[in-house]
Hints:
Elements: H1 3-28, H2 35-51, E1 61-65, E2 68-75, H3 77-87, H4 89-107, H5 111-122, H6 128-145, H7 151-158, H8 163-174, E3 190-195, E4 205-213, H9 214-217, E5 222-228, E6 234-238, E7 249-252, E8 256-262, H10 276-286, H11 290-298, E9 307-313, E10 318-324, E11 329-334, E12 337-341, H12 348-354, H13 366-380, H14 387-394, E13 398-399, E14 404-405, E15 434-443, H15 444-448, E16 451-456, H16 466-472, E17 492-495
Parallel strand pairs: 2-5
Antiparallel strand pairs: 1-2, 3-4, 3-12, 4-15, 5-6, 6-7, 7-8, 8-9, 9-10, 10-11, 13-14, 15-16, 16-17
Amino acid sequence: MGADSMRRAAAVLLVILGGAALWWAGSGAQASASANDAMVATIAVARGRAASNDPRLKGASRFEEGGWIYVHLEGDPGARGYQHGYLLAPEIEDGFAAVSAGMMHSTQRDWEFFRKAAHEMLWPKIDAEYQQELQGIVEGLRTRTGSKLDVDDIVAFNAFEELPDYYLPWLNKWQKAANAPNLKSPGNCSAFVATGSWTKDGQIVMAHNNWTSYRNGERWRIVFDIAPKNGYRILMDGFPGVIASDDDFGINSDGLMVTETTITQFEGWDPNGKAEFVRARKALQYAGSIDEYARIMLDGNNGGYANDWLLGDRKTGEIAQLELGLKAHKLWRTKDGVLSGSNWARDPKVLKEDTPQFDPNNKESSPNARRARWEELLAENKGKIDVALAERMLGDHSDTAQKKEEPNERTLCGHVDGSSRGVKEWEWQAYYPGGAVQGKATDATMAKEMRFVARMGHPCGGDFLAKPFLAAHPEFAWEEPYLRDMKAGPWTEFRSGQVSKESDKN
Ligand SMILES: [Zn+2]
């Protein structure tokens, strides 16, 4: 081993030790702190010491800032996966536990059901490149923590948006399952993309806040900087252990800017299609234009996690909306306009064929009330929209149905835990602990330099505290092992190739 690789190994080890220490310190602060945590951390450090010489870790790095964990992954698919699994091992184990518990709770199916679906239905249609990356995640994870998770677990976990709420409702209907739980596709996010006369500099501005359960959302804190051997460089937010951004927000080095909001009350699944998480990751990695993006998303469309994709091409200043139903889809595009999303479909054919239960005229529903607010807010700010303004918009608390300021399920910055109504379209009962869990924004200039800003927690800066919530709402007691405080961090800028906070000062 040369001096260079020694230094590199030492640097990686330092990152690992630092990460493990922070992880331990983090768990130590909680009531659940125990000698076991300390022992696990110590074992992880020992494994890290032994494994940090692995050549697959070459070039990979990790640091934390503003409540986010930034990881740089590079190289061939197996190496990228290994780096991902290794550097984020504690977070993957923790995220897997929370997500899999939620999947089993809502569907009343055991984990073996999801493993089987992953193995038999999803895996054979995953591109070899991503099969290798997923295998790499398992290897890195096992090396670091001795995890027992295998590739079927990781594939099912990667499909956590599509298996419970798309595949299962389809399967239950097809099997005419008795007493099947009433599963609804999720409603994730508020977002917009604007260009031309709508923005301050005439170039594209894009912003997004992620709506999920706070249980999952508080863990949606990864910034992935990926330099793949093939395809374009990617900067995206994401979930530990998942290869797509999945909420979604990302930019690539060929100028594509990508986000989405989910289509409420979507119904449909094609068991012969390709998993959404694979198509979404592939499109961000390989599409250099709006047309290429649409082509990759449509190739093998399985209907899973059906979204209204909001796209921008900073090379041309053009923005687009790809409303990706299963039976129908539509693409709108413009070089002068704004496209917003808050979980509603608008194409008559998609509405009729893919979301037959959705009522676009109910002004009191979360998707429609937020749609009205986006229209109002964006029109008021026409010609002034920039990233600073976008940050404020993501934290907006204006409820158009009640015509008042009140953080609830109808505001762009969602706080469903404060609403006695919940969101029936998504089967979110009254006071459901979910809503906007983090936000991101960028513009064409920043995208060219591979930069975006991001804030963990409610984009308005409000905190969610688990203990008083659970005391007030014992109906959510099952979440207790997984539901943690979600405290807002500061708006923080991240860019490709960033090594650590300190290096910015040099
Ligand atoms: Zn808020």
